[in-house]
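hi support,

uploading two proteins for the ticket. first:
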Amino acid sequence: MTSRFDVIDSPGLGRVSRSGAGLVLAARELRALADGFVAVLLPAYLLALGHGQLEVGFLSTATLLGSAIATLAVGRWGHRFALRRLLLAAAVLMVATGLGFATITSLWPLLVVAFMGPLNPSGGDVSVFLLLEHTVLAASASAEVRTSVFARYSFVGSIFGAVGALAAAVPDWLAGSAGWQMLDALRAMFVVYAALGAAVWVLYLRMPRPPPTDERTPPASLGPSRGIVLKLAGLFSVDSFAGGLVINALLALWLFERFGISLTGAGAFFFWTGLLSAVSQLAAPALARRVGLVNTMVFTHIPASLCLIGAACASSLEVALGLLLVRSLLSQMDVPARSAYVMSVVTPDERPAAASFTAVPRSLASAIGPSLAGAMFATGFMSAPLIACGLLKIAYDVALFAGFRKVSPRS
């Protein structure tokens, strides 16, 4: 039986315990809970502070850009620090970000806080936590179960993100039933975000320290897999740029402005999208074993993009929500398959570098989208970001299938 203090090699970022994978999943649950309500409440909070649609886009860009730079820094210099210390530092930033948003009202200070912290306005995880936690999970799983491990990671993120989205209704309840001012109720949710960050810090504090004699190896650079990784990074960047046009915060803003949906209604909608995404990720490993990782990514993504385009053109809230729910059932099935595919087409020593090389360009590309979408919203082109996102994602899927359908995993 494996002891909770048993360790395994994690090239480039030291050694991690097998019990660390369980702590990673628990921390992912808490972070997803926080991300679930923040993504819905962020645009409402900024509008309540007197900021406009363009400012929502700018601030979303700042969060994604800061996450990209943090991921790049960890990929380049993270080997100098214990993995546990990096995770603890990221949790401290999460606490500081929540408190900063709860107390600051001016745009420029908020942009700084958003840039420095791991605030996540999107539906998936784009923060520096992703690289660190993926390293733990990849080192903990054999090739046979790696897709299932990443599927579980994505599944708990979707489930708890869905529950978090329901919590977006709390400010409405506080304002309507408890007599709170709406702005104070929104601020209170960012205090809750900070408290969840503190709980994440406690979880990572429980991670066993590496043995004193442990010598961390320098990070392995990309070797035989360089060409594959660079091509994948380029394609993933196109996909992420497209996704940046319709992150959850902007999709919530679109629903607020286009159809006048309430915070409670938006929270319920994102709850169901999260549940459907979770169901799809449970099905991803079985589908990948049957049709392959690349086919799983492509053949579920294209119909999801068509649903997004259809929702953009819908004339009623009911039709738009229906198409968006179908999209949620399909659009995230590629996430565990993509993570497992990247980890499988490189050698074990290249995995940290591959994770960084694919994550950083994706984060940088996704950071551009929110500002462009905010500008489109502000000029009256409310459906343009959704249509552009769908078309770009279809182009990405076609290119991915053409370039990698014959590239098999190494192990």
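and the second one:
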Amino acid sequence: MISHRIYLDFNASTPIAPEVAEAMKPFFTHHFGNPSSLHWAGAPAKEALENARKQLADLLSCRPSEVVFTSGGSESNNHALKGVLFALKEKGNKTPLSA
């Protein structure tokens, strides 16, 4: 009988596809600057980030400015909730989420 382990906690950690690992390799070894920095180390990371944003926007048929990368689930949830609340702002404080 062959025994296989099954991992079910993909919210905490997810395996990386080989293609993704290969695409990210330069940014783990050579181009590791902060893309928000204005200096030379951040320029390659900023360029790659904006290229990824455009590719994803093209895939989703939206504007690159509508693509927001977050650091994790809590930040993503917070961003989504704020988006809903701002969209419902004109309805006043009687929205379903303010009850």
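thanks. also noticed: The chain has a mean pLDDT of 87.
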